[in-house]
Design goal:
Blueprint lengths: L2 H16 L4 E4 L4 E6 L3 H11 L8 E3 L10 E2 L3 H10 L4 E7 L5 H4 L4 E5 L4 H10 L3 E2 L14 H8 L5 E2 L12 E4 L6 E4 L5 H8 L27 E4 L4 H10 L4 E5 L11 E4 L4 H17 L4 E5 L8 H10 L10
Parallel strand pairs: 1-8, 3-6, 5-9, 11-14, 12-13, 12-14
Antiparallel strand pairs: 1-2, 2-7, 3-7, 4-5, 5-6, 9-10
Helix pairs in contact: 1-5
Length: 329
């Protein structure tokens, strides 16, 4: 898109936000469903469009770390350290909320989630708007996240006032969430920035979430789920399970980590990339393609246990949370 055309599109999106409308926009992680974070009526539209529970907090997207004080108070050194190291980028910080931040944004908690995205379209939008934009993933609540503008259109149709098309998201999975509102920083959701990288930047170990940790986006037991029941299985069991389900008359879709497709009739098989970065980039698009096949069961090969795969494992485990035992559906 030419620079002049982009400026016109961004101006239209900013006007939509200021009028209390919904703007879907790309980030480096996934597409967000944006609304003016300071406008409660606009924020309500986000919950209504997504079918999202009102106690599930939203992430406020801002153009730079200088805007932190508009949304947070008592900002610790750890937050400044991580912001300097990883912003703009796929990192969300949980902080004590500033006075005036709506309960709708925080889910009624005393904390607020904030991040600075790096996608150039998101940056252009936020800089032109000048304020905070809530931006949960642009999909129905609990379902597979959107990583292209077309995914957003498929989800919402005309229910979104403006969709900014920034191409396919570079990372493809949601941001890492770190709680820095307490005594010790804690990892609430793994993302492309790993816990090892966070600990290296802080020079200290991260705590695990506990009963006192704030609720954070995308951390429910069941989330990121396709309509088709998804089962996580070890790679050497996929062929056997696919044949078993097919003999039962079930339609089977598979996301595997190799291209060796067994000779099974009416089997939809996608060979995912071997490298974790490429796998993450393609993950939600692959799940959507398999889901669109309207099969009876989706088999996904279990990712490796390495730290680079932690965020991918997290998303797939939540997507498979209601899966039936092996061999049943």
């Amino acid at each position: 898109m030419a620079l002049e055309e982009m400026s016109v599109v961004i101006a239209r999106a900013v006007a939509t936000l200021r009028a209390g409308g919904l703007v879907a926009f790309p980030t480096e992680t996934v597409y967000g469903l944006g609304a003016d974070a300071s406008n409660p009526e606009a924020v309500k539209k986000v919950f209504a469009a997504k079918g999202r529970p009102h106690d599930h907090p939203l992430i406020v997207h801002v153009a730079n770390s200088a805007q932190l004080t508009a949304w947070a108070r008592d900002i610790p050194l750890a937050a400044h350290t991580l912001a300097q190291k990883f912003w703009p980028g796929p990192l969300t910080l949980i902080l004590k909320r500033a006075s005036g931040v709506s309960d709708l944004v925080t889910g009624g908690q005393d904390t607020v989630a904030i991040r600075v995205p790096s996608h150039p379209v998101a940056q252009a939008l936020l800089q032109a708007f000048g304020g905070g934009v809530v931006g949960p993933s642009a999909n129905r609540f609990g379902r597979v996240s959107a990583t292209t503008a077309e995914h957003v259109r498929q989800e919402f149709g005309d229910a979104v006032d403006c969709v900014l098309d920034g191409g396919a998201c570079e990372v493809g999975i949601e941001s890492t969430i770190i709680d820095v509102s307490g005594a010790t920083p804690a990892l609430l959701r793994p993302g492309w920035i790993t816990s090892t990288q966070i600990e290296s930047a802080l020079g200290a170990s991260l705590a695990a979430p506990d009963a006192q940790s704030p609720r954070a986006p995308g951390t429910l037991e069941k989330h990121y789920a396709p309509r088709t029941p998804l089962m996580l299985v070890e790679g050497d069991l996929i062929d056997e399970l696919a044949r078993s389900f097919t003999r039962q008359g079930k339609r089977v879709a598979v996301l595997a980590r190799n291209a060796r497709q067994p000779l099974i009739e009416k089997l939809l098989w996608i060979a995912a990339p071997a490298a974790p970065a490429a796998y993450a980039h393609d993950l939600y698009a692959n799940l959507r393609e398999l889901d669109d096949a309207a099969g009876d069961v989706m088999l996904v090969e279990q990712p490796p246990p390495a730290i680079e795969w932690a965020a991918i494992r997290d998303r797939l485990m939540r997507a498979a949370a209601d899966a039936a035992p092996s061999g049943e559906i």
